[in-house]
Structure formats: C-alpha cells, structure tokens
Amino acid sequence: MRDPLDRIIIFDTTLRDGEQSPGATLNKDEKLTIARQLARLGVDVIEAGFPFASPGDFEAVQTIAEQVGTPDGPTICGLARATGADIKAAGEALEPAAHKRIHTFIATSDIHLEYKLRKSRDEVLAIAPEMVAYAKTFTDDVEFSPEDAGRSDPEFLYRVLEAVIDAGATTVNIPDTVGYTTPTEFGALIGGIEENVRNIDKAIISVHGHNDLGLAVANFLEAVKNGARQLECTINGIGERAGNAALEELVMALHVRRQYFNPFLGRPAESEEPLTNINTREIYKTSRLVSNLTGMFVQPNKAIVGANAFAHESGIHQDGVLKNKLTYEIMDAQSIGVNENQIVLGKHSGRNAFKTRLKELGFELSENELNKAFLNFKKFADRKKEITDWDLESIVNDQIQQPPELYKLELAQVSCGDRLRPTATVTLRTPDGEERTEVALGTGPVDAVYKAIHQIIDLPSELIEYTVQSVTAGIDALGEVTVRLRHEGRVFSGHAANTDVIVASAHAYVNALNRLYGAMQSPSFSAQAEPSVTSRV
Ligand code: KIV
Ligand code: ZN
Questions:
Q1: What three-state secondary structure class fits 325?
Q2: Within 13 Å, how many C-alpha atoms sit on residue 160's CB side?
Q3: Residue 493 Cα, ligand 2 centroid: separation in angstroms?
C-alpha cells in the first residue's frame, strides 16, 4: 500500500522536453550549468536528456549523472522509448548517479497506434510491461508514460497501467502530449485512473502536458486535486511546440494558494508547510539562466518571471500598492528571488570578491574559466562603473554559452549616421587559422556587419530572429543580443552581451553560424535535418 504522499514531486524536463524547443539546443556545459542550478532550486527529479538520441545527449546525461546526481542531490532521469536499445543506453548513461530513474514510454492512443507505431493494442500491451521489466534490471526507479494518454481510450489505458505497475513501474506518468484536454477532463482522467487501476496504490501518478491551448498549468492543478503527486514541467514553460507546463507557475500557484490545495493532499487547510521542495527564491535566477542559455526570451507579461509581473503602471494601482502592497499584489517579488538590483562590484574589485560573488550566484567555474571571466569583467568594469548581479550573470552566461570557436571574430567596425551609408568592416579568423577581412554596405549598421560576416562564412541560412535587450537600466548597460538562424528546417541560436550592441550583434551572429557550421561537420547532420523520432519525441 502506498503512503499517501502529502507533497508534490517536481520533475523538471527543461533539459529534455524543454530542449526540444526549436533552436534551444544546449551544449554539454550549458546543460550541466542548468542542471546544477535546478539542483539548487530544489527539483526532485531532473530529466537530463534522451541518451539514445545522440552521442552528445548520452554524454550530457552521463556528465550530469556524475556531477549533479550526488547522494544528497536530485534523482537523475533519462528518457527511453520502449525498446531494448533505448533502455540500455539510458541505463548506461545514468550509471554514475546515486539516484537514477529510467523513463520509458510507448503511445496508447489509437491514432498513434495506427499511424505512428503500426501496432495493435495487444502488441502495445505486451511491449510496455516487458520493457519496464527490462528497465528494472538497471534501476528500481522506473517511470512509464503512455504517450498521448489524453486522447487514449481510458479502458485501454487502465489495462496498460495495471500491466506496467505489475512489471515494477514505480511512477506512471499521464501525458497530454498534444495539449488537447481541458482542466475538467484532465482532472477526471486522473480521478478515473485512481479509481479503476487495480494496483495504482503501488505507483505515484505523474502528469506531463503541453500548452497548445494554453491549459497545461490549469490541467495539472486539476490533476493534483484528483490524485496526481508528480508534475513534469520546464523552466519558463519551454518545450515542444507551445511548450510544457511552466514550473514557476505551478510552484507559485501551489505556494500562494496552499490553503486551497492543502485539503486535497490530506493536510489541514491552514498548514504553512510548503507543498513542494522548491526554494522559490531561486526561481528568478533559474529563469534568467535558462532564457540566456537557450536564447528563448521570456515575454514581459509572462506570469511570475516576466519583466512586468511585478510592475504597476496605473496610478490607481501604484497608489494602492504604496498604501498596502496586498491591494494589488498576491505575492512578493522577493519570494521568487527578484532582489533590488544591487550594486555589488566595480572596477577596483579583486578576483576574490568576484569569485565569491559568482559562487553566491551559483556559478562554479574552473580556474581557467574564472580567469577568463575575470578578464571580461575587468574590461567591462572599465566601461561601466557599477556592476550588478545581473551584469555578472550576463558576463558568465555569455562565456558559458560560447560554442566551439570555429570562426573567431577579430574585428567589427562600422561607420553610420544620417549622412552616411552604413558600412562595416569585419575580420574573422577561419577554422584553418587564416585571417579574412570583408567590407559591406547595409541598410543599417547591424545589416552591414551581417553582410560582411556572410561574405566570409558563406553558409545558406535565413535570419529568423534578431533581438537586443538591455541587461540593466542606464545608458552604459550591457546589451544582450540573441539571433536565430534557420537552415534546412533546423534552427540555430547565438547569444552575446557587450556594452556595444553592434559588437554584441556580431558575436551573436558568429556564434549562431559556428553552431550551424559545427553541426554540418557532424556525419549525422543531413540525417537530422528533419527532426526524427530519434531526436525528437
Ligand atoms: O509529450 C509527451 O508525451 C512526452 C512523453 C515522452 C512523456 O514528452
Ligand atoms: Zn512532452
């Protein structure tokens, strides 16, 4: 008999489903940085990737298992289709983790069975428990997902769930893969599982859902009321198509409205004990880190972590808040870790102060990385008097995010103004060490720089997004530039920060082209040009 779980397990899939957002591809170091921050945030489970999908994914999961999967750290999970090869790869990649979980899945909706799997219900009913039993040979902690559960016949779903629990699944995850269900329907689906699956007391019910109709978070909250005790979510809600349920929204809804949710978890309504293990004060930092490293901006009006989430514009609201915050605020910005934008360091700050502050911000750099970051900090401090935490994060994220420097920007110079045609001179060092300089005219300075870069790195690609954002207020603020390029259906992003937005623009563009160039060198590149079942779930 399962103990009734009186708290919610947070399963973060930013590094797996989140990374499936077009253009959000992360390299191993970026994934490790995010995984470390997720551990500080207090997530219970990190789904670190899909080891069978590529050698890069395997290595990233293995590294996270080794370095973040410590005895007092989170459970590290790897995704696997219900096939022997996938499960074996996941088991091997997760080997170094103190607490490891294999998450295996197979579709159960008729539409997926007929068109995608070309399998009968009986075949799926045989494969699912067999693969769960195989996963159990690598770890006791096995999660099973009936993909597209939201559109599956509930009676068939109950039979599959019973079979996988008998085979040893300790968590059964119910995905609304296409974001189709409504809150009442999804709640009823979970309630039906609680009632009709004979052995459900031997497993934890989890939910996973996409945001195609903007309902993922609402669906999950109804699921909690009906017995779900694990929520699969991502930071900033990133993920396949319209994304996944956003971790920060779920956690803060459960936190702010705990008196409403407590009774559904068998607690007295007035209990102040948190419903999740999340340290909410780490939410904002985690959101910025994920946004910077994936190049996926957070919309200003996004709940909890958007720039306007705690801003009051109307005079009536401002007046009310000044008299008493509770008039228009249901939570405190500090509860998610939005501090005053403290001035922490300046030009005279030493290496030790720099290192200590970075550590407090959650960055653990190697000696080499620290030296490089300190040099960047010093250069920056020459131009900007007051360096804030946000500036520091930006400097370090910028450094972590660099793809291998195949092409290196040596010089970017522009002349422009209302009487001049924007003209750029760019010098790049090519991967074989040659220095090349090109000059180009453009409609504006950034266009001129990009044309000059293109004359050197002649890779067919379409610039589909260019954004520039200031990290802090003030004329001397760092400008962060993010670009996205599309090549044969795949998206590559680049990110850079500098007080000079033209220089940041040049670096961001070269970074994105380096990612594209690096991917083109890989033998599997053309096979991956169209997302496949192996690389995308
Ligand atoms: O959306 C989905 O169904 C998934 C499964 C692999 C859980 O991502
Ligand atoms: Zn998904």
A1: helix
A2: 29
A3: 22
Report how far residue 399's alpha carbon sits from residue 529's, in angstroms, rounded to the nearest whole number: 28
pLDDT of 129 > 50? The answer is: yes
Point out which residues pair with 246 in neighbouring strands.
234
Percent of the chain with pLDDT over 90: 64
In angstroms, the CA 421 to CA 426 distance is: 16
Distance, in Å, from the CA atom of 513 to the CA atom of 521, rounded to the nearest integer, reads 12
How do residues 473-499 score in pLDDT, each as one tens digit?
666 677 888 888 888 877 788 888 888
Domains and CATH numbers, the chain: 9-294 (3.20.20.70), 408-521 (3.30.160.270)
Task: Please state whether 303 falls in left (phi above 0), alpha (psi between -120 and 50) or beta.
Answer: beta
Partners of 498 in beta bridges = 479
Instruction: Answer yes or no: are the C-beta atoms of 501 and 475 closer than 8 Å.
Output: no
Residue nearest to atom 5 of ligand 1 (CA): 147
Which of the 8 DSSP states describes residue 342?
-
Nearest CA to ligand 1 atom 1: 177
Distance 141 CA to ligand 1 centre (A): 18
- Residue identifier of the C-alpha nearest atom 2 of ligand 1: 177
pLDDT band at 518 (very low <50, low <70, confident <90, very high): confident
- Give the span between the Cα atoms of 386 and 353, in whole angstroms: 14
CA-CA distance, 254 to 262, in Å (whole number)?
A: 9
Q: What's the predicted TM-score (pTM) here?
A: 0.82
At residue 398, the 3 state secondary structure works out as helix
Strands 479-487 and 343-345: unpaired
As given in the structure block, the two tokens for residue 261 are 């949710």
Distances (CA, A) of 231 to 13, 15, 94, 296, 480: 10, 15, 21, 22, 33
Q: From ligand 2's centre to the CA of 86, what distance in Å?
A: 17
* Model pLDDT for residues 39-63, shown as the tens digit of each residue: 999 999 999 999 999 998 999 999 9
Distance CA 505, CA 8 (A): 43
Give strand ranges (E) for 50-147: 75-81, 100-107, 142-147
Helix (H) or strand (E) holding 48: strand 45-49
Instruction: Tell how far the Cα of 47 is from the centroid of ligand 1, in angstroms.
Output: 12
Give the residue, by CA position, lying nearest to ligand 1 atom 3: 177
Rounded Cα gap, residues 215 and 219, in angstroms: 6
Q: Is 537 in the pocket of ligand 1 (CB under 6 A)?
A: yes
